[in-house]
């Protein structure tokens, strides 16, 4: 009698799943009932006021903090994190800083320096800049080097803690285009936090608005256009619509809008009268409901 042949189970789909996450510092609750799923090739932006727990949530997803209650399941093979400050080693050249993670992986010297140089060039750092030390570079060039250091590792998941917050509008736009190009090149997933709602609408597929005390999800917006198809006018209109929602304004402690926006349940026209691309108002996130952990 022939023994049955077992079929191997399929590999789990790459994703970051956060379910019913709660966290506290001593007796103070900082996160309450956080839930979302980030699949490969998608971007989620977490926006909210200072002190609402965004950075704590990002550090939990990065494994820098221990989960107290709930679950974080990171099924991505490789993750990288981009912090608020570039954190470049001042005694290393820019090229050496970009290659630092590859060195930690024990990549041979010639291979890691070649990969670092290619990534530096892709992000606009020429050989002169790569040979300099971080203190000799502008803030924008240091941000490019930090992004190159993260991307040269070919991560499947990139965690970003407001890395472009200190840049002017022109440099920030350049960094956005560089990041979007890398996301278009491969199935890179991005989880970012920002105070800049327009930045979130520019880069993310899904925007989750958090309120504080304790940090919780109050509004979710799934954007109907891929980032590569969003023009400036569409981004401005979509940002304005999001900021008009009462729950979003309350989260940021803003006064009520002068005009009433469309409710979450009202239909948004597939194509506005002026022919522009479709917009979306988003919907409220209620605790302990499927919406709080719906797939992005």
What does this structure look like?
The structure is a single chain. With 296 residues, the protein is an alpha/beta fold. The chain has helices spanning 54-62, 94-98, 100-104, 109-122, 127-131, 139-151, 169-185, 197-203, 232-243, 246-251, and strands at residues 15-25, 28-39, 43-47, 69-74, 79-82, 157-161, 189-194, 206-211, 216-222, 283-284. The strands form two sheets. It has a seven-stranded mixed beta sheet, sandwiched between helices. It has a three-stranded antiparallel beta sheet with strand order 2-1-4, covered by helices on one side. β8 and β9 form a beta hairpin. α4 crosses α6 (139-151) and α6 packs parallel to α7 (169-185). The protein is globular, with a radius of gyration of 21 Å. The N and C termini lie far apart (48 Å). The relative contact order is 0.16. The model is unreliable at 7-11, 264-275 and 288-296 (pLDDT under 50).
In short:
Helices cover 31% and strands 22% of the residues. It has 296 residues and is of the alpha/beta class.
Biggest pleated sheet: 7 strands, mixed
The mean pLDDT is: 83
Please give the radius of gyration in angstroms: 21 Å
Number of strands: 10
User: Based on CA inertia axes, which overall geometry fits?
Assistant: globular
The helix fraction, in percent, is 25-40%
DSSP summary: helix tally = 10
Spatial order of strands in the largest sheet: 5-6-7-3-8-9-10
**Structural class determined from secondary elements:** alpha/beta
Order of helices and strands: EEEHEEHHHHHEHEHEEHHE
- Note the gap between the termini: 48 Å
Poorly predicted ranges (pLDDT <50, ≥5 residues)? 7-11, 264-275, 288-296
Beta-strand residue percentage: 15-25%
